[in-house]
Amino acid sequence: MSDELNLGLDGVLVTESSLSHVDGETGRLIYRGYAIEDLAREASFEEVLYLLWHGELPDADALSSFEDALADERPIDDDVVETLRALAAADETPMAALRTATSMLSAYEPEHPDPEDLDASLRQGRRITAKMPTILAAYDRLRDGDEPIEPRDDLGHAANFLYMRDGEEPDEVAVETLDQALTLHADHGLNASTFTTVVVSSTLADVYNAITAGIGALAGPLHGGANQDVMDILLEIDDSDLDPREWVEEAIDEGRRIPGFGHRVYQVKDPRALILEERSAELADSTGDDRWYDYAKTIEDYLTDEVGLVEKGIAPNVDFYSGSVYYQLGMPADMYTPIFVMSRVGGWLAHALEYRENNRIIRPRARYVGETDAEFVPIDQR
Ligand code: CMC
Fold it and tell me: Fewest C-beta in 10 Å: which of 6, 53, 57, 292?
């Protein structure tokens, strides 16, 4: 047993996986062998979910049954809607509302399988995945004082989410952009939230426990929360008297850490950021408002050319351009991390169930550095 400390489990291998691989040196990401660029361009998010959960790309029949199964599971119980209403009245964030409602879904779960029944666990996870957009769209409407809109079963996952949020048929560019963003975020090796999900599942707790825990881990600003932080800085620049270059100079002088930069695995620009950057630029072109893309690009260029961050291996990650993409689709900044959840739930479930095939409870150790011979003093003598 080694007593060497490894803060942050940097580089530690804890399991084998055939789900996704991040090559941090070349900036390559694959899901089950397929390049992320091909999947983003050619496959729908539903195809990607199928790939992650069933090990292969579906043929047309398999995809159609899979899409129907997901669409059937979209509605949520009225009690969940009422809880969302109460959370909206208390001004809860959408991320916390999604966490609470996801946990609550287990009360309406029709199956309570043996923890070893992986097929039933997969069905439970599929239900959660299908219902998350319904929860999130309902919450965004309720906090604006609008009533939720029932899901439609004739629209895809991304299109139906936009429809339920906005109450109108979404345009094709918005659907394609969101669908692509969902594909790009679906899996990413054993990142912090996926590891959390696997840790919980390794105790043989069910997928509701595991996925709810995953949401908690993704919420933090060092992980999924960074996309909202990036948009917040772009909005801060827009509100300030400084141009983006002056803003980033000042931020660096103050020693601020720029959200959306840096990654434990990537030493180069994240391949997902390259695709999202293109989407952000295209949206800017089509609306004629290039502020959000322009601010982000100016920050990236400054940090690359003047500060040399990229040379040091601190490059834009997936969160750097996703914020400006979602903003241009009309989403408020606090919805970005929950949208990340809507996608990453696919990877969480796949990893939790893959680990279960050869399960061993995850239980590391801490080196004890506290007192060893404390003398107990009764409470009335303290
Ligand atoms: N801006 C400036 N310097 C940075 C940044 C940044 N965004 N990120 C890392 N560094 C520096 C850091 O100061 C440290 O320098 P030094 O060795 O001189 O002290 C070095 O890079 C290593 O940083 P670290 O925090 O030890 O690296 P880590 O692997 O533990 O953390 C990270 C990775 C993603 C948490 C970190 O890069 C970070 O805080 N980035 C900003 C938040 C962010 O964008 N998070 C999203 C990550 S990607 C998507 C996701 O997971 O959801």
Answer: 6
Position 364 in a domain? no
The pLDDT tens digits for 218-249 are 999 999 999 999 999 999 999 999 999 999 99
Q: What tokens does 100 get?
A: 């609470």
Decide if pLDDT at 145 tops 80: yes
Q: Which domain holds residue 285?
A: 226-328
CATH for 253: 1.10.230.10
Q: Which ligand 1 atom minimizes the distance to the CA of 192? A: 51
The CA-based angle 128-130-131, given to 5 degrees, is 65
Interhelix angle 336-356/192-202, rounded to 10 degrees, is 40
User: Per the domain annotation, does 188 fall within a domain?
Assistant: yes
Compute the distance between CA of residue 327 and CA of residue 320 in angstroms, rounded to an integer: 12
Secondary structure of residue 316 in the 3-state scheme: strand
Mean local confidence (pLDDT), 341-357: 98
pLDDT at 23 over 80: yes
Domain count, the chain: 2
| Cα 306 to middle of ligand 1, angstroms | 18
261 pocket-lining for ligand 1 (C-beta < 6 Å): yes
- Give the global pTM: 0.96
CATH number at residue 105: 1.10.580.10
What's the average model confidence in pLDDT over 193-220?
98
Q: Under a CB-based contact definition with an 8 Å cutoff, are residues 135 and 80 in contact?
A: yes
Question: How sure is the predictor about 115, in pLDDT bands with cuts at 50, 70 and 90?
Answer: confident
The verdict on 310 and 350 lying in the same domain is no
